[in-house]
Each structure stands twice: as structure tokens, then as C-alpha cells.
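Task: sequence in, structure out. Protein: Glutathione S-transferase N-terminal domain-containing protein.
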Amino acid sequence: MADLSAFPIATRWPAKHPDQIQLYSATTPNGVKISIALEELGLPYEPHLINISKDESWTPEFLSLNPNGKIPAIIDPNGPDGKPIGLFESGAILLYLAEKTGLLIPADAARRYETIQWVFFQMASVGPMFGQLGFFHKFAGREIADKRPLERYRDESRRLLGVLDDRLKGRKWIMGNDYTIADISLLGWVRNLIGFYEARELVGFDDFANVAAWLERGLARPAVQKGLTIPARAKV
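Result:
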């Protein structure tokens, strides 16, 4: 049985199955990337809900694994050389899981780097921009009288949707016929933009037919549907 005692996070969220990958997350766009990937890959894992509404990601135990204080994070008890490894940042975790299994990423070096660049596109552009748009459109930022920040993030979000729409022209997935971690990295964010953030009309989402068709294909995958609800939210 794996020994996770070196990880303080395992004291606050004890592992019932320490030989499985431990996932510390919530059902946010960044969080569901990893549960979707784990479901797609068929890797055994144990999810732990980090209640971000109660600031649990800022507890000392969580920060000991992820000093950035954001979900998700994982512990793989069977990491490189058979030793446990803890990782944070969703893009890094996606890449790790893909390379661990040899799945969801092309074996060809050039296509592998092309896939990674689209993961970075989400991390550096789509995630931050969509997140800020959500803040100014749905959350506290909507009370700000000056609408220039909202307009700036709306316009930038439209630009990014255009980039993605152009990429998907004539393609089933970001990498053509190959469903990869690039798709997984983006699906939750696009879904949130038009769903949870209620910004479909604001960004003119229906102008981006290729993105809309890709999103529909992605959401139809059983692993995606399951991963979107893991870890389960606590019952009130």
C-alpha cells in the first residue's frame, strides 16, 4: 500500500484508496479537466472535494501541495520511478497524465508539440479571459458602472472564439481526428462561458458554428459527462 504520509494534504483529506491517484478539485472549468482526463484514460482515482466557497484551497494542507492556492492538484502514488509525485496546475497535470499513459497526445513529436501549444492557448488566453468576462458579466464586477473592462473582455473573448473557430474549420477535434488533451483543456471553459457565465448572447456565440459543433461533440462523450460532476458537490 502506498505511503502518502509525506503529503500534509492527505491528513486533511485522507485517502481511502492510497494506491490510486488522489485528485483534489472542484467542478470548475480547471477542475473538470482532470476528472474528464482521468475518466477518458480509465485510470483509478479518488476524488476529494475542495470547497473553494469555504476557502479550503487556502488551508495550509492544500497550500503544501499547491502553493498557488488554486484547484486542481493531484498525488500520483505511482509516479516516475515508482515514487509518489504531487502536481498542481491543470495543464501540467494533463500533460503528465497523457505522457504517463501514452494516450490523448500524439506520439509524433511535431504533433505532440502542436497539441501542447493549444493547451497553452487555453491556459494563457482562454481561461484568464473567459474568467474575467464571467466576473464582470455575472459576478461582483457587474456592479461597476464603468463598462469598459466588460467590453474589453467581451471583445477579447470573441477574438479567442474566432481563433478557435478557425482552427476547427474542417476538423472534428483540435488536432483533426485525434481527440486530445487540447480538447479537454478547452471544453469546460467554453461550456462555462455560455452556460454558467450566461454570456452566450454577449459574445455572440452562435456566430462560431465550428466551436458550437465541437462543443456538442465533446459534451456527448460519456467520460466528459461523468467528469463534469466530479468531485461531487457537498450536499447542503
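The radius of gyration is 18 Å.
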